Amino acid sequence: MDCKRLERYLSRYLEGExxxxxxxxxxxxxxxCPSCAGKLKKLEAITAILRRLKPVQPRGDLAALxxxxxxxxxxxW
Amino acid sequence: MSGLKSSSAAxxxxxxxxxxxxxTAAFNKIVNRYQGRLLNFVYRFTGDRETAQDIVQETFLRVxxxxxxxxxxxxxxxxxxxxxxxxxxxxxxxxKRWHFVPISKETRQDVAExxxxxxLGPNQLAEKKAMERNIQEAIGSLPPKYREAVILRDIxxxxxxxxxxxxxxxxxxxxxxxxxxxxxxxxxxEQIIDQIR
Lengths: 77, 197
Prior knowledge:
By secondary structure, chain A is mainly α. Chain A has one domain (3-56). Helices cover 73% and strands 0% of the residues of chain A. Chain B is mainly alpha-helical. Helix content of chain B is 72%, strand content 0%. Chain B has helices at 12-20, 24-46, 49-65, 76-94, 108-116, 122-140, 144-155, 160-167, 171-188, 190-196. The longest helix of chain B is centred in the N-terminal third of the chain and has 23 residues, at 24-46. Chains A and B meet through α1, α3 and α4 of A and α2, α3, α7, α9 and α10 of B.
């Protein structure tokens, strides 16, 4: 497996989604390619950063606002 | 009056069943259950909080209007996210040049966040804000298909099957989009990754 091909499998490897045979091939490549091993670590860091992003909270009472809109736009509720 | 269990106990199917019979309380419960996740998804996709708030409202209005079209065999959350995703993509197509609008109106939540951030010094706070801005800009610079897939997978923590349904593509394509999106983000956020590691 070359570096270009390995790139296609990195996310699935990270998430434990590869079949045994593919997983072995990825690991063989990672063991001998520091560049791809580094890329894997960075990919892991990206997913961790995204999962830690602070959620945006809704403003005001959306349910109440929607009830009003539904009444106004659709005519009944 | 809703004949349902408490909103946390009632399943989506039960809530939708009551809502489609005209129970307003059940509709409100659906709104309260999904508004936070939807807003987060749309905000990360568009980069603009006001637009995201409008799209979330429109999403629920469409859920209301299309309630007769919904089939209980479909997953309610997937259906709602599909509507929101389509609206967000449509909004994006209508803009000639997409740019990130800074959040200018201070809300109670913004104030609460400021208070929570007071444990940080001014430099740390500025760094944190800059980092958050860079991350959001990097997400916003991804092609929409990759952006949607990465947000749904890494921020909303959805399964590839759900992502495929929302994006209207095969599961293999959803996996490929997530991978490509992450690889592009990795290049764009090289500096931040090095700071954090």
